[in-house]
Amino acid sequence: MTGTFRLALLASTVLGGAAAAQDVTLTIESWRNDDLQIWQDTIIPAFEAANPGIKVDFAPSAPAEYNAVLNSKLDAGSAGDLITCRPFEASLELFSKGRIADLSDLAAMANFPDVAKSAWQTDDGAATFCVPMASVIHGFMYNKTAFDELGLTPPKTVDEFYAVLDRIKEDETYIPMAMGAADQWEAATMGYQNIGPTYWKGEEGRKALIDGSQKLTDEPWVEPFRQLAKWRDYLGDGFEAQTYPDSQNLFTLGRAAIYPTGSWEIGVFGPQIAGAFEMGAFPPPVAAEGDTCYISDHTDIAMGMNAGTEHPEEARKFLEWVGSAEFATLYANALPGFFSLNATAVEMQDPLAQEFVSWRETCEPTIRSTYQILSRGTPNLENETWNASANVITGAETPEEAAARLQQGLASWYEPQK
Amino acid sequence: MAQRKPFRWHIAVFLAPAVLVYTAIMIVPLIGTLNLSLFNLTEAGERVFVGLRNFATLFGDPRWSESFWNALANNGWFFLVHMLVQNPVGVMLAALLSSPRLRMAAFYRTAIFIPTILSFVIVGFVWKLILSPIWGIAPGMLDAVGLKALFAPWLGREEYALTTLALISVWQFVGIPMMLIYAALLSIPDEVIEAAEMDGVTGWSQFRKIKLPLILPSIGIISILTFVGNFNAFDLIYVSQGALAGPNFSTDILGTFLYRTFFGFQLQLGDPHMGATIATAMFGIILVGVCVYLFAIQTRLRRYQF
Amino acid sequence: MSTARHSTTRSLAAHGVLILYTVIALFPVFVIVVNSFKSRRAIFADPLALPTSETFDMVGYQTVLKQGDFLLYFQNSMIVTVASLFFVLLFGAMAAFALSEYRFRGNLLMGLYLALGIMIPIRLGTVAILQIMVASGLVNTLTALILVYTAQGLPLAVFILSEFMRGVSDDLKNAGRIDGLSEYTIFLRLVLPLVRPAMATVAVFTMIPIWNDLWFPLILAPSEATKTITLGSQVFIGQFVTNWNAVLAALGLAIVPVLVLYLIFSRQLIRGITAGAVK
């Protein structure tokens, strides 16, 4: 049955092939199924118009399955030509297994600062294997309309932060903060990694953890957990079973006043709120007025090339374009909140996105503490941090217990921490 | 039967298609995977034969063994809830449905089976919505009958989450025992029932004395299917609680533990070797259960041919 | 007279229990369907209310239908499900007949071998299966899915069918043999009709996981032309999805076809069961 079918296909290719003989179709593997429309309507047409003869097909799968699906396809040799790269370990492993190609010699790589490339490089920095696309910045979004109603201003210090929360709680119109513990990653990513850098001083603490001069049981690493434990009083009823979409909806429907989050929500939230209230954002509060603020400006997404692709030339052409200023502008504006890592400054239209990106000027940026090197072993520090952060928020573990457990797990396999 | 017969080709013909497809597409790939449990990577990334050392790690290293026993215990409870709730309810519904001259039997049967045809994605999503403390279908309904105090964010509490999920799974799958028992009950010849009625055996005692012994083989099948299904279960928990089976791993069963290990999750890379080790252990557990059924129970069940 | 009243009470009680359970079974489906027709705010404001003229909104369905060729996806799902089902039932019944009818060396072992498949999730063999499909050029064809689902469904089919076939009267088969019928005729003409209830049951059990499977379509046949409906509606259920209108509409749409399919089989199933009962 298939035999005939393939024969027919072959025949039709041969017969109808003359005109389309040059056409090469590149398939992009991605976990960003939310962006399907943007790729189809904006990004791909722009590339195809400039590069006749190359067709691009964006084929996303759900984020939770992406790694498993991609690895299986790469192992068997049926994966697409272009691979959307997760930062650090996941992509590094693909590269060291020879699944994705070395792109160090790509001309467009010169457009990116070293820090942007660090998430997709070998430890010694000798080879870069994905073209950086975007980073996301953590912070707090708030309901400006609600703040105005209650006469509140965005808090700058930690004390002001709790004062604001207390005030909203007293008023009882709004849930002070939208966060749930059910999906765990909210607590870790939008809680711990959001406010944490302020305490461990961004890159300084992150590097100290890697070289072993600080431990997860040290004060700068336990304090963020203590803060999270305090948040419990300001969350909605039944937050233990509140999921990530629940939190998003609580905020966008105007029922919660503050939402600890990341910049990637900007593009999704705008149309959902549809003008019902005004959104604002503030960076993680600092201990005292005038202290240096730290933000998580996390290198999140890049694109590499399947080492087994049949069209390496066309794929590299596409990647050169992904590394260009043209793509950076297209992408950053189509997806406000995904900030280009391109050295060329990108003009952005969205005011909220501008607000987030302006913190790069005033605050010290860092990446998520658990991503580089430290999540290489078993137990996996990132996953443990999810669990620990959720436990601390629900009260299943004290901050000190959680930190001690993380440290013990890390020390069990990571030499500098032993 | 004692004398040797010529080779019976028809047996081979009957078996061949199933055995071929099944062996090529299922057994060979699975053996390849389970075989990985005997290998692991060296520091340099080469695959070497390590014998049973992975199993020593799984059961000896507290980091692995704690997760394993936790998942196994949770799985045991998950199975117990199914045996105690799903199967009795299924038998009861089938018994009611098979009562003669019941009107609307077709409607009930179809309606009750509907949850079984839904995908896990739908089931997980809708129950999360109903039980959500925020959108308030369950709290609202409890409130309406004055029992608001009984509500808790069940899926978010370590002590309730697993039982809640087990009950959701029961809700979803009760149609299967119901259908199998229903088919078994209907295939009891009318003469048997009529004879019983002549003797004045009706109602509950008729069910217990006449029908129950006749449907015991079906109940046996259901039990073993439940056992196998539960110890392979994965999707419902994955869909509603994620691969980390929260809160705090209280809903982690063998299937989710295996998935997380084998395919990896987030920054945790997939470890096919330890994953295969867990799979082999699971396979062992299920195999023991099935053998107990096949050799100890099935051979002793009395079957009645009509 | 008293027995008549007694049986009325009993049948009332039976109806009571069945109605109660029917409500429990259908309530979540009701929640999905009702909310899929409401505007976003209305979903959250009052999830149990029926859509009114103010809250009625088809935006979810519009979003979903714009996203892909759902008719084609449905057709793919249909082809895969029906073809797999056919092979599972045919091959499964043949093997089950061999196991339950004949005593031969290795019978029990063969039974156990064929049952192994229900003990390990086939998902673990993914990479090897994908390699087979790549090697034979079957990636992105429906044939790949049919092969996998046939293999996946066989163990359970053999397991259930052989149990039921053991219940078929030996006298009947022996009578057939005395009449000079071949083993194949006995299988086709005498045994198969008698196990129709079991066949229908197996059909329904096999159909559901195939229809609802997300994994193998995603791995083996993700192309636009071979997408199944479950895979097609998966686009709306990702980590970052808050578009509940679209999610609910996609879920609602995913329920309808499998429900139709089930209703079709259900008639067969019941016809099979009742035919089997009247011997």
Automatic annotation (TrEMBL), chain A:
Q: Name one Pfam family in it.
A: SBP_bac_1
Q: What SUPFAM superfamilies does UniProt report for this protein, alphabetically?
A: Periplasmic binding protein-like II (SSF53850)
Provide the protein's localization: Periplasm
Keyword Cytoplasm recorded: no
Q: Does the keyword Transport apply?
A: yes
Tell me the keywords, alphabetical order: Signal, Transport
Q: Which family does the similarity line name?
A: Belongs to the bacterial solute-binding protein 1 family.
Q: What does this protein do?
A: Part of a binding-protein-dependent transport system for a sugar.
Q: Could you tell me what this protein is called?
A: Probable sugar-binding periplasmic protein
Automatic annotation (TrEMBL), chain B:
Q: Do you know which Pfam families this protein is assigned to?
A: BPD_transp_1
Q: Which GO terms describe its cellular component?
A: plasma membrane
Membrane topology for this entry? Answer: Multi-pass membrane protein
Keyword list (alphabetical) reads: Cell membrane, Membrane, Transmembrane, Transmembrane helix, Transport
Claim: Cell membrane is one of the keywords in the record: yes
InterPro entries annotated for this entry? ABC_transporter_permease, MetI-like, MetI-like_sf
Q: Please provide the Gene Ontology terms (biological process) for this protein.
A: transmembrane transport
Q: State its location(s).
A: Cell membrane
Using the record's annotation, list all stretches that form the ABC transmembrane type-1 domain.
72-295
Provide the transmembrane region boundaries.
Answer: 12-32, 77-98, 110-130, 160-185, 214-234, 274-296
Q: Which PROSITE patterns match?
A: ABC_TM1
User: Which family does the entry's similarity section mention?
Assistant: Belongs to the binding-protein-dependent transport system permease family.
Protein name (record): ABC transporter permease
Species, as recorded: Paracoccus halophilus
UniProtKB/TrEMBL annotation, chain C:
* Major localisation: membrane
Q: Which InterPro entries match?
A: MetI-like, MetI-like_sf
Q: Which UniProt key words apply to this protein?
A: Cell membrane, Membrane, Transmembrane, Transmembrane helix, Transport
* Recorded GO CC terms: plasma membrane
Q: Where is the ABC transmembrane type-1 domain?
A: 74-265
| Residue intervals passing through the bilayer | 12-34, 78-99, 111-134, 146-165, 186-211, 246-265
What's the short name of a Pfam family annotated to this entry?
BPD_transp_1
Location of this chain's protein in the cell: Cell membrane
- Alphabetical list of SUPFAM superfamilies matching this protein: MetI-like (SSF161098)
| Membrane topology type | Multi-pass membrane protein
GO annotation, biological process: transmembrane transport
Q: Does the keyword RNA-binding apply?
A: no
Q: Which family does it belong to?
A: Belongs to the binding-protein-dependent transport system permease family.
User: What protein am I looking at?
Assistant: Carbohydrate ABC transporter membrane protein 2, CUT1 family
Q: Which organism is it from?
A: Paracoccus halophilus
Q: What is the lineage of its organism?
A: Bacteria, Pseudomonadati, Pseudomonadota, Alphaproteobacteria, Rhodobacterales
